[in-house]
Design brief:
Elements: H1 18-21, H2 23-33, E1 46-48, E2 53-58, E3 61-69, H3 78-87, H4 92-100, E4 106-110, H5 120-126, H6 135-147, H7 154-159, H8 161-165, H9 170-176, H10 208-230
Antiparallel strand pairs: 1-2, 2-3, 3-4
Length: 233
């Protein structure tokens, strides 16, 4: 597949948000995700923009989607962020951001608002205590959605039930979006990037050790997902 997994999509976004202004990222999303759904229906994506959006319309449903990074290099409160930053090698934050803006760190979410309420992206960012814009915690919420279980994102995922129904079940959702390295081998839970206690522990790392572990596991996941992309025909 003609995808450069080392390409930093910020470099051709003209200094703007790469999720909506990188033509390379737009092309990569189309190359990766225009493929059959579990039902056999083609998950076609018709782009518009820039700013780039993607429209899908089929028997599986009508969806408007947009790109977003699957992680945030967050480190807790301002004082803790300063302390963490001062304790890390100078190149560490830059390296983290660069890896995060390769294709392995990006995914599509429904963009259209329903009843004027939060989109999934908005909820992920605004629920700072329980989700903190983290993909591992979001994926656990999606797993629980498919099982009919409660989670901090339960209400917003429920509003987009038609989108998730297009993938039929959690296993197929994970495989479609190449998220296998973020779940256990039997798909029974997400692989969490910090200690997890049923969404009761802070989503945003509160100390340097927790942040360093979060950063390491995030980078490992993105590199593993990039490796999966490189193996695609």
């Amino acid at each position: 597949m003609l995808i450069d997994t080392a390409f930093d999509v910020r470099t051709d976004a003209g200094g703007k948000d790469p999720d909506t202004f990188s033509p390379t990222l737009s092309r990569y999303h189309q190359l990766l995700w225009i493929k059959p759904l579990p039902s056999g229906v083609l998950f076609d994506l018709v782009p518009s923009g820039p700013p780039y959006r993607y429209r899908h319309s089929s028997a599986a449903g009508d969806f408007t989607l947009s790109s977003d990074a699957s992680y945030r290099p967050t480190r807790g409160t301002a004082s803790r962020r300063r302390s963490s930053r001062n304790s890390l090698p100078p190149s560490t934050p830059t390296h983290f951001n660069t890896i995060g803006y390769t294709i392995g760190g990006l995914i599509l979410w429904p963009k259209n608002r329903i009843d004027g309420k939060w989109t999934i992206n908005q909820a992920r960012g605004c629920l700072r205590t329980s989700i903190g814009d983290r993909m591992d915690l979001t994926l656990e919420c999606i797993r629980r959605h498919y099982r009919g279980e409660r989670s901090p994102l339960g209400a917003v995922l429920g509003r987009y039930a038609a989108f998730f129904a297009a993938f039929e079940d959690f296993h197929s959702y994970v495989d479609f979006w190449l998220l296998q390295d973020m779940v256990t081998d039997d798909y029974s839970a997400a692989r969490f990037f910090t200690p997890f206690n049923d969404f009761k522990t802070p989503a945003i790392p509160q100390d340097l050790d927790t942040y360093v572990g979060y950063r390491r596991r995030t980078i490992e996941f993105i590199l593993a997902r990039n490796a999966r992309i490189e193996q695609l025909p």
